[in-house]
Amino acid sequence: MAAAIHAEGLVKTFGGVRALDGVDLDVPEGTVLGLLGPNGAGKTTTVRVLTTLLRPDSGRAMVAGIDVLAHPNEVRRSIGLSGQFAAVDEYLTGRENLRMVGRLYQMPSRAAKARADELLERFNLADAADRPAKTYSGGMRRRLDLAAALVVRPPVMFMDEPTTGLDPRNRQQLWEVIKELVAGGTTLLLTTQYLEEADHLAHDIAVVDHGRVIARGTSDQLKARTGGERVEVVVHDAELLPTAAEVMNGFAKAAATVETHTRRITAPVTGGAKLLAEVIRELDTRGIEIDDIGLRRPTLDDVFLSLTGHAADEAARPEEAAK
Ligand SMILES: Nc1ncnc2c1ncn2[C@@H]1O[C@H](COP(=O)(O)OP(=O)(O)O)[C@@H](O)[C@H]1O
Ligand SMILES: [Mg+2]
């Protein structure tokens, strides 16, 4: 299958900061690549290079078969971009914003109107359609920005953290819109800090950290790599933490992590509920009282911890990025 997006050795430095340190990517036509990484990993910089907004120091990139550095204008005609920070005209209404995009792309006026109405409906903006965008809440702006990126149905789409700052209902709706878009043949590169989002939408995930792709694969492959599942135990008595950790390490695929102040031990395991029962029995045999115990799938933090040796929350938390 032809690659709709191809990047090779992208390097970009800002002063002393190496934002991109040799990024390689391939996104086959008609698929979704999720670029997953914490704040500062280089996601936005990658998107800006691929969408012709920023020239890399070195490396090359092709989008829709066109050389990004040699023919940026042609690339721009083949792509849609929804940025991390909403780029809507504050003084126009939601409806006017969408119609304007259609007209910019030379859609016939009737078609631009119809598409605007359809998108306003899809993104729950119909009631606010005739209010200036400056009266919109943050979530509404975000939705309008995404709608604007979808006015023309480009063969290749880029979405930079499309659902950061959206409430769960709107996030769900956007996921549905994205799925339809991809079912229609669009290739999508999507950046996110949420493993769950990559899970729902991406065929392939590339994990980025410090300007490099440090792992790639399907969501299941990445989770398997991080050790399948997690058992979490909250021990009642802090003094028994070391003993409990020893028990947990007996079941774990990799070293358990101990959080002293919450008396919580987390261990990567494979084996599901049956193993959970064994852990409970063993802790009981050793006389360790527990306040809470549970089995969960790996989170983005787990993927990061296992891939990079540092937790994702050493960077800013997602909630802070949404502000
Ligand atoms: N225009 C810029 N000037 C200086 N530093 C920048 C600029 N853009 C990005 N950076 C730095 O490059 C790194 C990667 O940033 P970015 O691509 O925005 O990460 P992400 O989108 O994954 O959060 C960060 O350390 C960031 O501070
Ligand atoms: Mg970013």
Automatic annotation (TrEMBL):
Q: Which UniProt keywords apply?
A: Antibiotic resistance, ATP-binding, Cell membrane, Membrane, Nucleotide-binding, Translocase, Transport
Spell out the SMART domains in the cross-references.
AAA
Gene Ontology MF term list: ABC-type xenobiotic transporter activity; ATP binding; ATP hydrolysis activity
Lineage top rank: taxon:
Bacteria
What top-level class of enzyme does the UniProt entry assign?
translocase
Q: Which family does it belong to?
A: Belongs to the ABC transporter superfamily. Drug exporter-1 (DrugE1) (TC 3.A.1.105) family.
Q: What is this protein called?
A: ABC-type xenobiotic transporter
Which organism was this protein described from?
Streptantibioticus cattleyicolor (strain ATCC 35852 / DSM 46488 / JCM 4925 / NBRC 14057 / NRRL 8057)
